[in-house]
Amino acid sequence: MIYGRSLFHIVASLIIFHLSGATKKGTEKQTTSETQKSVQCGTWTKHAEGGIFTSPNYPSKYPPDRECIYIIEAAPRQCIELYFDEKYSIEPSWECKFDHIEVRDGPFGFSPIIGRFCGQQNPPVIKSSGRFLWIKFFADGELESMGFSARYNFTPDPDFKDLGVLKPLPACEFEMGGPEGIVESVQIMKEGKASASEAVDCKWYIRAPPRSKIYLRFLDYEMQNSNECKRNFVAVYDGSSSVGDLKAKFCSTVANDVMLRTGLGVIRMWADEGSRNSRFQMLFTSFQEPPCEGNTFFCHSNMCINNTLVCNGLQNCVYPWDENHCKEKRKASLLDQLTNTSGTVIGVTSCIVIILIIISVIVQIKRLVKNMSKGNRTLTRQFSRRCLNLPIMSYALSEGQELQLTLQMWQRTLKTTTNCGDPLPSAFTTTTVGPTCPVRRAAAVTSAQEMLLS
Ligand SMILES: [Ca+2]
Ligand SMILES: [Ca+2]
């Protein structure tokens, strides 16, 4: 860290400190409170290879009571070099307690600090270890100076120098919206955005309906090179895809759910050529704040979600209020419908139901007679969709018949069992089941068919 460089500066700052100690202390306390809004200020010119930014009014005096944040972002596999112009002056003080520039190695105000600078001597060249630098300029309520001008360049990250000249990354963006949806890494391959061997830097833009915000819940997450953030990560932005709106970045073994403040969420996935097995699956739910309107459901946690998301098999609320007591809710809604419907409609519906029951009974009798005449045995298996609390489903099959389960149904069952960590029904698991859904799906379908045909 660099503080005042010369004895003169230290003495000067000590004098200033003692002369204005009480006022300065008060000012610092006030201006560093979290309630003060930090804004970008001064000028900032950006171009493909770097940029230049300055303190407000530079090279004239900066104004008092300012806090400016500058977050520089380089592309994956690039670093940042930051140079301060020699025409530089920031009010000197002991440990740069008053006006200062603070530089951090990362995208956040809590990233590791590189240095805090003030005085007359411009800071040395600063190099980032990754692709972000977080820079704060702070001016307190009195004694202003010229300020600073800083220039930065993007340079190749030395961690990747063995790879030589890198190929440009494929364009990879997705647009999504509505009351809910699933953002998942498999979309990259499904929609042909990149080949399996290419590095990817993909963005999903999620736009919630007007006056809505977004809640993001991870259904699946695994980084192939966990804790190697330069090689793979999943990032969440809140409001835009600019680095200032970066809300969370995941590259370790766990990822947390994220509540956004805005109705525009951006999910970004970076995976280099050797990390393409990294994967994630995220459920987004659009919600409004209470009081809940007529067509919404109250989640008990400051969320009103669309009624269509209640009992749809996916947990949209922070706690699973939308998927609790679904049997009772269905009964209640049926009763509501009946009471709200006119007698004529009830009559017509009853007739149709009776006719359908008669037809179904006839079909069942015919099938029974046919089976008895062939002397076939009937196998009945039960499939319990435990996580969903849905009714148990039974399938009656004759010998030689294959079980017709749609892939969609399996995906839904598997997705739910994966979510809540509940194993598959024992009849569909083998001891060699792998950790990924496709393997489980294959094993489950195969064993189901084998069992029913044996
Ligand atoms: Ca000052
Ligand atoms: Ca739901």
UniProtKB/TrEMBL annotation:
GO CC term, one of those recorded: membrane
Major localization listed first in the record, in broad terms: membrane
Pfam families to which the protein is assigned, alphabetical: CUB, Ldl_recept_a
Keywords for the protein's UniProt record, in alphabetical order: Disulfide bond, Glycoprotein, Membrane, Phosphoprotein, Receptor, Repeat, Signal, Transmembrane, Transmembrane helix
Gene Ontology BP term (one): positive regulation of excitatory postsynaptic potential
Signal peptide: 1-22
Subcellular location: Membrane
Disulfides per UniProt: 41-68, 292-304, 299-317, 311-326
Lipid biosynthesis keyword on record: no
Membrane topology field: Single-pass type I membrane protein
GO MF, any single term: ionotropic glutamate receptor binding
SMART domains (UniProt xref): CUB, LDLa
Keyword Methyltransferase: no
Chain ranges passing through the membrane: 345-365
Residue ranges occupied by any CUB domain in the UniProt entry: 41-155, 172-287
PANTHER family associated with the record: NEUROPILIN AND TOLLOID-LIKE PROTEIN 1 (PTHR24251:SF27), OVOCHYMASE-RELATED (PTHR24251)
Protein name, entry field: Neuropilin and tolloid
The organism of origin for this protein: Lynx pardinus (Iberian lynx)
Taxonomic classification: Eukaryota, Metazoa, Chordata, Craniata, Vertebrata
